[in-house]
Structures are given as C-alpha cells and as structure tokens.
Design brief:
alpha/beta; single chain
C-alpha cells in the first residue's frame, strides 16, 4: 500500500497537484481555482486518488458513469486496503404504485454516508447522477444514528421510537436489513451498515448486553460493547403521528377526478406509518 503512495509522491505532476490542494483546498469556494489533470489513464487516476485521499479526506469522487465509479472504487481499495473507498450508487426510481421494492441501493448509499461521517472510510465514489440525487443531510444522519453501549441508560420503548423515526420497520422475526423485532426484554436490530444483526438485551431501563447473532439459527455469535445504528432510510420524519396528521389534512383538501384513488393511496400510507412500517414504499 505504501508503495503506491510513495510512488505517486515521486511524480512531478502529482507534487504540483498536491501543492495546489494544500494551498487552495481550505479556502472559501469563491476563492478556489480550477485544477485540471489531463492525459491520465484509468489506473493512474486511481493511483493519484489513492494517494490524495490519504491526506485530503473525507472525499467525494465523481466518475462519468456508475461502471467507472465501481472500477475506481475497486482499484483504490486494491491500492489502499479494503473499504478505503465505498461506492455511493445511484438511487433507483420506481414510478407508480408498488407493494414491494428492493432497498439494496438505498442501504448502500446510507452505509457509504455513515462510513464517511464516522471516518471508517476515506472516500465515496459515485456517478454524476448519484451525486445530483438528494439524500439525508450529514447533521440529520448524525442525529438519527443511535449509539448504544453496554450498561448505558436507555428504555426499550425509547429505543423502539428511535428506530421507527430512523426508518426501521417492525417485524416478528428479522429477515433482512432495516428491520427490528421486540420479544420481552430483547430488541433485535439489523442496521444496513452491519453485516449481521445485533441483539440488545435490557435490564429495566439499562442496556444489559449487546451481541451479534445469526439470522438463520437466531444464536448469538459474539458480544460487543458498543454499536452505532445508522438510519435505515433516506426518507425520515420526526414523528409518525405528526406526519399522519399532515397527510390526513391533505386528504381533506383533495378535489378532482382522481381524488378518490389518491385518497386511498394516502390512507394506505397512514396505515403503514401507524403500523410502524418504514417510509420507503409510501405512495405520497
């Protein structure tokens, strides 16, 4: 890894680029000058970027396409180590009424943003289309991330409310990311940023223990002292009941030929929110 880093530093053009960033990188946007690097092949782009992000991070790297972003991300990680850079994919848009949709790309976007915010990765790599799509602001992402430690004071009901407001859906038993379940004094959670779900056991209003577990066997695999639970949706709201009230107020104002169809869709949204389902499939 250091070989690629040191090799870049011996390149005259890279030294010029590095000096430019040191001089103008921290200045206000209106005082910066454009920097143009030409005649660089794909692998040399990855080489330069791998060295740059070790000193200038977190970074957003915008590629010409999703395929190019994937290649850059893979090559940067090959030079700097696993998950130095993460792909920030384009969000899929589904038009029309639907009952279910894959949330894989939304989870990957949230994972990349959470990793940048926490410093777990140095860069997010995306296409221009992905960069232009709206997402959760950093301040809101930090606010909606729940941090739990063994022995901390937190009631089970408080945790459930935080999970719902962070876009998690309640299930009888966890089957995939973005879900949580409650059984007695146990809350199981599957954060999109984690390869395995976690089990939080309560003793009164205190977190007694936290552990990872296997979804198939439901058995604990390892104990952990602390976990950051990132949001499970890019579409979040402060209070489910306040959102329902706003939707119901909108329903009263509906007029026109398609008002009845729209009303049914909005009422379906209200029922989903009140049943503690996530908001990614809302029709409003």
């Amino acid at each position: 890894m250091d070989f690629f880093y040191n090799a870049a530093f011996q390149t005259e053009d890279f030294v010029k680029l590095r000096k430019y960033l040191e001089k103008y990188g921290s200045m206000p946007q209106e005082k910066r000058l454009p920097a143009l690097v030409t005649g660089v092949s794909h692998i040399h782009k990855a080489h330069f970027l791998s060295a740059l992000i070790r000193e200038h991070s977190p970074a957003l790297i915008i590629a010409e396409s999703e395929g190019e972003a994937q290649r850059l991300c893979s090559d940067i990680n090959a030079m700097n180590g696993s998950e130095t850079a993460l792909l920030y994919p384009t969000r899929e848009l589904a038009l029309g009424t639907y009952e279910a949709a894959s949330r894989e790309y939304e989870y990957k976007r949230i994972y990349a943003l959470s990793s940048l915010l926490s410093g777990k990765c140095l860069a997010a790599v995306c296409s221009a289309e992905a960069a232009a799509q709206l997402t959760i602001p950093p301040s809101e992402l930090q606010k909606r991330t729940v941090t739990l430690e063994s022995g901390c004071e937190c009631s089970q009901q408080e945790l459930v409310e935080q999970l719902i407001s962070a876009g998690y859906s309640r299930a009888d038993m966890i089957e995939g990311a973005g879900q949580f379940s409650v059984r007695g004094g146990i809350v199981d959670i599957f954060p999109p940023s984690s390869p395995e779900p976690c089990r939080v056991e309560f003793w009164g209003d205190t977190v007694d223990s936290i552990s990872r577990f296997d979804t198939e066997s439901q058995r604990r695999t390892e104990g952990i002292e602390k976990i950051d639970i990132s949001p499970a949706s890019e579409t979040l709201f402060d209070s489910g009941e306040s959102l329902c009230a706003k939707i119901e107020e909108l329903i009263k104002k509906l007029r026109g030929k398609k008002a009845e169809d729209i009303r049914e869709g909005l009422l379906s949204d209200v029922n989903r929110i009140r049943s503690e389902e996530h908001t990614s499939e809302l029709q409003s």
